[in-house]
Specification:
This protein is of the alpha+beta class and about 400 residues long. Helices cover about 25% and strands about 35% of the residues.
Length: about 400
């Protein structure tokens, strides 16, 4: 468990509170205990109204349980849930202004697309149902398919029908539970763009649960990374990726090189670290430990690779003595493993621009990175946390 989980959770909640006021979703000390484990631990969270929010984490981290408590499908052991200023902690699912879109579309096979979308409105005997359905099918770009049955549509089209059926009820919050998990990669990426477009157009609060890092970062305004029932870190996707505050976030959200080091000095702007005899610099605002030992973190795509003695365009942190131990050509880039003098293999992603030759296994190389791209994490945290999930 990350030692920074609880402070980060508190700071994230306070930041969100400032952004969203009291008009969105608010969870306070929300806990869910089962017979043999605690799925969610005293969770504090605020989701501003109108935002696209993602709960991201591996299986068993508590994200789906949190979603189910918001929907009313699970009862909290303790804590409260407020939506638009109303306490809905113990309200029945049908009493909540919430709709859920699941991975399984759960469409009615005997009804055509228009009637699937109209189903909730007809049950409540609302007026102007046909006009509302027309507008909703326009929104999800399925007007021409309105008289087809679900089985006649592709998986992506069925998902849009499920989305329209939920949105037509005008919920305060739309919950998305791994909604794209059943789609193939190309279609999933197209639907990510579609979901973001639709959310922007309708202006509703979307809460999206996923284990897919790319999916969360592509669509969400704010991402909360969950681990062990708590939020490790929450913020804009770029902030989480560029400046992770725990080893779990650094490894789960993309890939990171984490290298042991000892703090030599601290100033208002820079932390200087001895990294296996090499002095490297880390910005103070990317230093997340008060200890005298830490993990120097650098993303593989931020590392430059060059010939021995070559002047690399990354002044500040140059790491000599590397030997290429593995090369993988992946089209737009080449992925290297480089064994360093202290025995650790570092990952390097080098873009294939044609300006630099592709190195071979056994080549002697030097690595370099700009200090502003590095971060420093607490050495007490597990350097492999989140890496294999």
């Amino acid at each position: 468990m990350s030692q920074v989980a609880e402070p980060n959770q508190q700071r994230a909640s306070e930041d969100a509170a400032g952004a969203g006021g009291g008009s969105g979703l608010r969870l306070r000390a929300l806990t869910k205990e089962f017979a043999t484990f605690t799925a969610v631990r005293s969770l504090d969270l605020e989701v501003p109204s109108g935002s696209f929010f993602a709960l991201l984490g591996p299986s068993g981290c508590g994200k789906t349980t949190t979603l189910r408590m918001i929907a009313g499908l699970e009862s909290p052991t303790s804590g409260t849930i407020e939506l638009a200023g109303r306490d809905i902690t113990h309200a029945k699912p049908y009493q909540r202004p919430v709709n859920t879109v699941f991975q399984s579309y759960a469409l009615f096979p005997h009804l055509d697309i228009a009637e699937n979308v109209a189903f909730g409105l007809r049950r409540r005997r609302q007026k102007d149902v046909d006009e509302q359905v027309r507008q909703m099918l326009d929104l999800v770009e399925l007007s021409s398919q309105s008289r087809k049955k679900p089985a006649q549509l592709s998986g992506g089209q069925q998902q849009r029908v499920a989305l329209a059926r939920a949105l037509i009820n005008k919920p305060e919050v739309l919950l998305l539970d791994e909604p794209l998990g059943a789609l193939d990669l190309k279609l999933r990426r197209a639907m990510q763009i579609e979901l973001k477009r639709i959310q922007t157009e309708v202006g509703l609060t979307f809460i999206h649960v996923t284990h897919d890092q790319e999916e969360a970062m592509t669509m969400a305004d704010t991402v909360a990374v969950m681990n062990g029932g708590v939020i490790e870190q929450m913020g804009a996707p770029a902030e989480l990726y560029e400046n992770p505050r725990s080893t779990f976030v650094a490894n789960f959200l993309g890939q990171s090189n984490l290298i042991a080091g000892s703090v030599v000095s601290r100033s208002a702007d820079i932390t200087t670290v001895d990294m296996h005899g090499i002095a490297v610099s880390v910005p103070a605002n990317r230093t997340h430990t008060d200890s005298d030992r830490g993990w120097v973190g650098i993303r593989p795509e931020k590392v430059l690779i060059g010939e021995v003695g070559e002047q690399l365009d990354a002044p500040g942190n140059t790491i000599p003595g590397g030997v290429v131990s593995d090369v993988s050509f992946v089209g737009v880039s080449t992925a290297y493993l480089v064994r360093m003098p202290w025995g650790q293999e570092l990952q390097v992603f080098s873009q294939n621009t044609g300006r630099v030759r592709i190195f071979a296994v056994g080549d002697a190389v030097e690595l370099s990175w700009r200090p502003e791209y590095a971060f420093l994490l607490d050495h007490a945290q597990d350097a492999s946390a989140g890496a294999a999930l």
